Amino acid sequence: MTTPLPQPAGDPTASSRPLPAPRPHRRGPRRALAALGIVVLLLAGLLTLLLIGVEVGPVALATGLLLAVLPVPIYVGLALFVDRFEPEPPHLLAWAFFWGATGATLIALMVNSAGQALVGSAFGSAVGELYGASLSAPVVEEASKAVVLLAIYRWRRAEFDGVLDGIVYASMVGLGFAFTENILYYARTALEGGVPLAAVFFVRGILAPFAHPVFTALTGVGLGIAALRGSPWRRALPAVGLLGAMILHSLWNTSAGLGGGLGLLTVYVLIMFPVFLALLAVAIGALLREHRVLHEYLQPELASQLLTAEDLAVLSSLRERRRALRSAKRHGSGARRDRKELHQAATELAFVRRHMARRPTDRDEDLAQREAAYTARLHDLRAALPLASALAAPATTSGPQSPSAAASSPADAPAAWYPDPYRQARLRWWDGWRWTEDTAA
């Protein structure tokens, strides 16, 4: 049996805990810059489509656009599937995808076309094509895609705190870039019609849709490792990752240009697919390690009984989180929203503390504010948690009840056995404050 949950108002440590002085937020200029950035990227995207349309015509452009759009939701969903313990802010993910699909693509299209034309005019079209595919495209494209990753790493460091974050952001910018690039390739092939279009769609949309995400993920891994380490040599890791992305990209393009179908298939089987599996293993390993972050950095809340061992068990399991959300939904959408926000606040608090512990030089006022805000919000939400999680009706006796005979249990229900709100057992003991570890199968 556990002791009652201490209320925030009666917690002397909470009332005496000094909060950092709030830093004035200049939301006006930030919003203006964000709006300006959106306008600039929209113009870049429209200009890119205009350049493609001028080259291939409106019908081929529409065909390429349709084929490129079709698989995007599937691949974006797969990229986000592994990022579930600490999901990245949707607006940053959108910026990454949007930059890859507009700004990075326009830069690469203009620079690569100009460079290939110059080299081709001086040394012949064959040399120009080889230069464009094997040298210019890997360098320019990977550098342009890395811009948004470096921006998030530099100015939103608290949201870029590990290898998994680097892979997710890189996958988004890579998918955005591949989306627009596929429009160009599909549109060009649509002019020929017939089997070539189906073949190109199979290679780019089904066989190797992860090519650009894999290239850029190497840059993301370098940034992710640098974000977790405070040693001086970490500054070289992003450059190493970017160089690896360029080399892999060049190898892929060269195999397609010089080796034809056989060369492309060989590189795909021997290099690209193994690299993809290795990155997937790294991402899954990072995801499995993230639940340990919760146990390690939420110990103060566990010691103060703000969170129980059962709470940590729920937070550390995606399946148990879903069960808790379904249980809370029985009390209404507001209860489910509070439960989901509690999961998010506790998770963000743990990861902010990990960032502060691993990068003590980044222990600035913003991080202290975030820690204090998440702690305060966690107190508020956890105080209301029994109302959100208690699913059973009050019992008239202290003996076990039939789950089918129970309804919802208010926070002041008497101590008794009730149907388990977490569905880990048939019944669970309610002590008037919270659910305990005592269960009846």
Question: Can you walk me through this structure?
Answer:
- The protein is mostly helical.
- The chain has 2 domains: 245 residues, no CATH class; 130 residues, no CATH class.
- The protein is 71% helix and 3% strand.
- A 3-stranded antiparallel beta sheet has the order 1-2-3, with no helix packed on it.
- Helix 4 packs antiparallel against helix 8 and helix 6 runs antiparallel to helix 7.
- The longest helix is centred in the middle third of the chain and has 38 residues.
- It is elongated, with a radius of gyration of 27 Å.
- It starts with 11 loop residues before the first helix and ends with a strand.
- The N terminus is likely disordered.
Give the proportion of residues in helices. over 70%
Using only C-alpha atoms, the radius of gyration works out to: 27 Å
Summarize the biggest pleated sheet: 3 strands, antiparallel
- Sheet/helix structural class: mainly alpha
Identify the strand order in the major beta sheet: 1-2-3
End-to-end C-alpha gap: 17 Å
How would you spell out the order of helices and strands? Answer: HHHHHHHHHHHHHHHHHHEEE
Overall mean pLDDT score? 79
- What is the domain total for the residues? 2
Tell me how many strands there are: 3
